[in-house]
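Supplementary Note 3. Input sequence used for the single-chain structure prediction.
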Amino acid sequence: MYLQLGWRNIWRNPRRTTVIVTAVVIGVWSMIFLGALMRGVADQMVRNGIATLTGHIQIHQMGYRSDPVIENSIEAPETAEHALTGLLPPNARWTARVRVNGVVSNARHSDGITFVGIDPAREAEVSFVKPAIVEGRYLAEKDEYGIVIGQALAEKFETQIGRKLVVMSQDTNEEIASRAFRIVGIFRAEMEAIETQFVFVTLPAAQQMLSLHQGISEISILLPSREQGDRVAESLRKAMPAELEVHTWQQLLPMVTAVLTMYDSFIFLWFLVVFVAMAFGIVNTTLMAVFERVREFGLLKALGMEPRAIVLEVLTESFFILAIGMMLGNGLGFLTTHILFRKGIDLSALSAGLEFVGMARVIFPIVLSKDIITANLVVFLLGLLVSLYPAIRAARFTPVEAMAHT
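The predicted structure, written as discrete structure tokens, is reproduced below.
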């Protein structure tokens, strides 16, 4: 009976019902869409950070992270590499690198860069470099004098494929080492800062230039899932020599980790803000409906209906309004994110400002089930809660007051 009466009552004034349902739809849609957008931003930050030479786990010589100089290189990486064979899960990938600060120059320009020596075959499975090549080619194993640079650096230096760049850095003898490399490839990264920061040569070329012999700066590991990071890292710490340190991506990317923690709280706060705005409309509309039906409620009480039954009747009407709004809002939210997920939201025009906070140029919204459940629970439960006030007001009308109401 309550369901039948509630359904009929909400359509006694279709215009008013449509207005409040629209408010609920907009509220639920904004929760889902903006929540998905923020999750997409956070996920892109994590993906970019992991792909940009970080990986899920890294192994360094003790002290390297606080002072990344060539003296803190891993001189004998064989022990660490042997331990990886038995401890990494299936489908995990790893690569060794030389990474030092340096200076790159040509006849017109010079600038500070991060000089990275890579194993081309292994690096292609771990980081962004090979898929990011937009001009020329990727490094080959025998590229003794080949170098890959970023598009922004090429534009800044007014150079192109086939031209030479001179790289200088300090070697293990504490002397300045330099070598001329020929540009064989140009890459484009998600963030322009990456394009100006990193230059890549083969691992043997970097080791020879810096007199490192077989030494390396780091081992980067890419796991099948980033959720495995803590467990695998703990196993590696037990197996590695005492002079080596093992760090997860959360430790290597503290800013990104802080943003992820902040987003969880911010999304929930956003849900509450949207609901508060929506709640005023729900309360106002329900109160209007109650005061328009004062004589009706008085008559129901005169016929013997108990106050709790009247409260239940008003709440049933709110239930239908919230249910319709939630279904339409969820549908609109899923449709919007599905359309945008295919191509993403291109924010290239704002790339300079976005890079300041570590955001990518293209954002792909991500819908998480926990956000959907939280948004709908907030709307439904708190929506019924705020509807209690008009419902209690309706239940307090006496038959005499109702009959006298005009």
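The radius of gyration is 31 Å. The mean pLDDT is 84.
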